[in-house]
Write a structure and sequence with these properties.
Oligomer: single chain
Largest sheet: 13 strands, antiparallel
Number of domains: 1
Order of helices and strands: HHEEEEEEEEEEEEEEEEEEEEEEE
CATH architecture: Beta Barrel
Radius of gyration: 21 Å
CATH superfamily: AttH-like domain
Length: 367
């Protein structure tokens, strides 16, 4: 005669529940937790929020084409004790956008999928042992071949206005942001994330629009970040830059912003071409807006030109195109500006290119 436990284990839903990953205590964000790879390239389903974020540009004529793809994972806190593959324990979102600077065109696409936590799910999943995130045909996967790490990505297609296939190959080591990968985002210790970057990625891409496929090369930047409480209670959003410098270095800077626009926290880093890393303190980063653009869709006013002061020097950041707002109300609800920008030194000389991200201008960002 079967025991009650054996009977429950025989049910299909129970089998699925047993296959889902445990919510590991090691997923908690804390100072002093060493990042371990390749495990920490993978998902951390015990953490509340997580994203893998790739930006860059494709070399094209008469002007570059910017791209951004982001895969988000959100732990809902719901149905964690219930069996079955339809239990919404996790939500996966994906955003993708193309900024064709020459054509003054900004195309975007997005997806939303529930995920039970089953690592073997076919429609949507996020592996914990390495980067393998997928939502249908949308995917981001890390591989290592001949000693070099490469991220393969595919987004769009179907009813999206474009399809983008990317191969992003690392040319430099990982850059651990903050204190060995623990990045403060506010005055309280729990207001932090685990965060690392891969700047100066070599990009090989195929971009398909209106049935026409074109090959491009370019340069990229990848971030992976996870957190339980990213924003302080009185914060509405952030301003962030990730810039591949022309000399081979990398510059990242951010500020967390109050409703009145004053900074609540800040940080960043500068890695020199020789690998020397300088991490910025909160009082060493200053963002000063210089010119604004108003979105006709959200009516949000975004600073699209900035003066930046960091320990790496004084710079000016200029968006290559004003209209680079992404409307995520069809997925995770966020409306934000994400766009290709150039960095100039105090003498007006172009010294880098990358992405500027601004959140909380249309409405306070909630995670």
């Amino acid at each position: 005669m079967w025991s009650r436990r054996a009977l429950l284990a025989a049910l299909p839903g129970a089998a699925l529940a047993q296959s889902q990953p445990r919510l590991e205590a090691d997923d908690r964000v804390r100072d002093g937790r060493p990042l371990r790879f390749p495990r920490d390239h993978g998902a951390h389903p015990g953490a509340r929020i997580e994203w893998w974020y790739a930006t860059g540009w494709l070399d094209a004529q008469p002007a570059p084409i910017g791209f951004q793809i982001t895969f988000f994972r959100h732990r809902t806190g719901l149905a964690e004790a219930l069996p079955g593959r339809f239990a919404p324990r996790q939500l996966l979102f994906a955003h993708a956008a193309i900024s064709d600077i020459g054509a003054r065109s900004h195309l975007q696409a997005q997806r939303t999928t529930r995920w039970s936590g089953d690592p073997l799910a076919r429609d949507a999943s996020a592996a914990s042992d390495d980067t393998r995130v997928q939502q249908g045909r949308w995917r981001l996967q890390r591989q290592v071949a001949e000693g070099a790490a490469r991220y393969n990505a595919e987004v769009g297609g179907g009813d999206a206005p474009f399809r983008l296939q990317l191969a992003l190959t690392a040319t430099q080591p990982l850059l651990l942001q903050g204190h060995d990968g623990w990045s403060r985002k506010g005055p309280l210790p729990q207001q932090a994330s685990h965060y690392y970057s891969l700047p100066q990625l070599a990009v090989d891409a195929q971009l398909t629009r209106a049935g026409r496929a074109q090959r491009h090369t370019g340069r990229g930047w990848l971030d992976h970040e996870w957190s339980d409480e990213l924003l302080p209670a009185d914060a509405v959003g952030w301003d962030w830059i990730g810039i591949n410098l022309a000399d081979g270095g990398a510059l990242m800077a951010f500020r967390i912003r109050r409703r009145d626009g004053t900074p609540l926290w800040a940080g960043g880093s500068h890695r020199h071409p020789d690998g020397t890393l300088r991490v910025f303190n909160a009082d060493e980063v200053q963002f000063t807006p210089r010119r604004e653009w108003t979105s006709a869709s959200s009516m949000a006013r975004y600073p699209v030109q900035w003066t930046l002061a960091t320990p790496a020097g004084r710079h000016e950041l200029r968006a290559l195109m004003d209209a680079q707002e992404l409307d995520g109300r069809g997925s995770n609800g966020a409306v934000y500006w994400e766009g290709l920008s150039d960095l100039f030194d105090d003498n007006g000389r172009a010294v880098g290119r990358g992405y500027l991200e601004m959140t909380g201008y249309a409405r306070p960002l909630t995670l």
